[in-house]
Amino acid sequence: MSDSHDSVGIVTAQTAVFDTPLPLNSGAILQGYQLRFETYGELNAAKSNAILICHALSGHHHVAGRYQADDKAAGWWDNMVGPGKPIDTRRFFVVGVNNLGGCHGSTGPSSINPATGQPWGSAFPVVTVSDWVYSQSRLADRLGIERWAAVIGGSLGGMQALQWSIDYPERIAHALVIASAPKLSAQNIAFNDVARQAIITDPEFHGGDFYAHNALPRRGLRLARMLGHITYLSDDGMGAKFGRMLRSGDYRFGYDVEFEIESYLRYQGDKFSDAFDANTYLLMTKALDYFDPAKSFGGDLVAALKKASAQFLVASFTSDWRFSPERSRETVKALVAANRPVSYAEIESVHGHDAFLMTDEPYVQLMRAYLDRVAREVQA
């Protein structure tokens, strides 16, 4: 890797293959599977400086750096991870992993089912956040990491950080839960179902077995992404960036692209439909819907969080209406009631839910300050 002052440089993805069966919450069992991951920085002698980055719905293991010097884009959180950045790879050993069921190298619906020699397709089992945490714990074992200095994630990644603190309290020192929620609202579940219906009703979906038909439900996935993308942005942010700008300067009185926001959404939908697997999208949104750590404790989130021994940072963004600050405050209130140490920040931003990926200065400074504290604990 490069020793550049602001980048982890050129990185290489790795694959961990597991032959031990993995029982899932659905009752299904994966007889074997693989996880694709990347690491940045060096694990110290005490193996105490490791940080796990959990990705959101459309994320993956490529968190920082580039595979080749001329890559147009770096990893999805390159602005946060690297030498001198808030998640400083001079001090931390950072691990990014593509979740089980993914489409970027971890075993998922597009992988070959060893029992049939064909892609899993519709036969791939539904996975939950707890299943991901379990599989990640096995990866930690493989890497020799007994305890994470921190588990960090935004959105669906924040749910994983929260689940880690409950399922493996002795293996996590800090949980950073950003732009997340203790469970989805009915509105969020509704958005997810509309997105799934767009995919499932695409004639090219073929019940999830489109691989065998040499087909791709591009239209459905495109619509799902367009819908999702709208909910990740704020009205003010969209207004400031696009307003009611017309591409041609005047109305054309038709149904083709006229407004710049339409062009932007269609571009995002097209790009996503060429890069992401439709079945993986279904799995990820279902994992979001099912996430509810209080469910196993009679609906009592406080009781669930009493299992945790980590320290917490919970952060929200003022313009995020998909995972609003009120939802983060629910988590904070439960943590306080469970006598867990928690810091909370509500950050001014116009970027909506996507703010956790951005570089708003108060957010960057918050992350830097908190992770400086984590680094001091590691060094103590």
UniProtKB/TrEMBL annotation:
GO biological process, one term: methionine biosynthetic process
Localization, UniProt: Cytoplasm
Gene3D superfamilies in the record: 1.10.1740.110, alpha/beta hydrolase (3.40.50.1820)
EC number: 2.3.1.46
Top EC class for this record: transferase
Annotated active site: S155, D320, H353
Catalysis performed (reactions): L-homoserine + succinyl-CoA = O-succinyl-L-homoserine + CoA
Subunit structure as annotated in this protein's UniProt entry: Homodimer.
Protein name: Homoserine O-succinyltransferase
Phylogenetic placement of the source organism: Bacteria, Pseudomonadati, Pseudomonadota, Betaproteobacteria, Neisseriales
Gene that encodes it: metXS
